[in-house]
C-alpha cells in the first residue's frame, strides 16, 4: 500500500516538474495589457506596471525554492543589467504568496549578486492576472503595455540575446 502511494506522489511530482521546467513559448497578442495592480517591492516602494507605459518591460516571475529559477538566476541578473543599459525596464516579481520568507529572499539575491528590487506578489494577484502556473515565467511587454511574448519555463539565452539585439536596433 505504501509503495503505491509513493509511486503516485512520484508521478505527480514528475508531472509538476515537467510543467514548470518546460521551455514552452506562447505568443500573447494584443489582448494582454500591463497591470495597474500595485505591488510593494522588497525595499518598500509601491509600483505598478502601468507606471512604465512608453517603455519596453520584461517581467520575470520567480521564487527562491524553484530549482530552475536558481539555475537561471546568474543569467537573469546579467540580462537585467543589459536591459537597463539599453533603456528597457526589468521587473522581477517574487511569488511571495508561495515563498513568504523575505530573509531567504534577501539571502537569495545576495548569493546571486542581484542588484534589482523584486516586487512582492504577496496575494498572488499578478500571478493570477497573468495566468502564471509554473515558474520561472517571463513576459515581454511593449511600450503600449501589451504582452508581446511569454516564456513559460527557463528563459533560453538565445531568446534573451535576441530581445536585447532587437531593442538595441530601435535605440
TrEMBL record:
GO terms for molecular function: isomerase activity. It comes from the Bacteria. It comes from Alkalicoccobacillus murimartini. Residues 1-28 form the signal peptide. This is Thiol-disulfide isomerase/thioredoxin. Transmembrane segments: none annotated. Pfam families: AhpC-TSA (PF00578). Residues 31-169 form the Thioredoxin domain.
Amino acid at each position: 500500500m505504501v509503495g503505491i502511494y509513493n509511486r503516485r506522489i512520484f508521478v505527480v511530482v514528475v508531472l509538476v516538474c515537467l510543467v514548470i521546467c518546460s521551455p514552452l513559448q506562447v505568443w500573447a497578442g494584443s489582448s494582454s495589457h500591463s497591470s495597474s495592480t500595485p505591488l510593494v517591492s522588497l525595499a518598500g516602494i509601491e509600483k505598478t506596471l502601468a507606471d512604465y507605459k512608453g517603455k519596453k518591460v520584461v517581467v520575470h516571475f520567480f521564487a527562491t525554492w524553484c530549482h530552475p529559477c536558481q539555475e537561471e538566476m546568474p543569467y537573469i541578473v546579467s540580462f537585467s543589467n543589459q536591459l537597463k543599459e539599453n533603456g528597457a525596464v526589468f521587473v522581477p516579481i517574487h511569488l511571495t504568496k508561495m515563498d513568504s520568507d523575505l530573509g531567504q529572499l534577501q539571502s537569495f539575491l545576495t548569493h546571486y549578486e542581484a542588484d534589482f528590487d523584486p516586487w512582492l506578489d504577496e496575494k498572488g494577484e499578478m500571478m493570477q492576472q497573468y495566468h502564471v502556473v509554473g515558474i520561472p515565467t517571463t513576459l515581454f511587454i511593449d511600450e503600449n503595455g501589451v504582452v508581446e511574448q511569454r516564456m513559460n519555463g527557463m528563459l533560453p539565452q538565445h531568446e534573451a540575446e535576441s530581445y536585447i539585439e532587437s531593442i538595441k536596433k530601435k535605440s
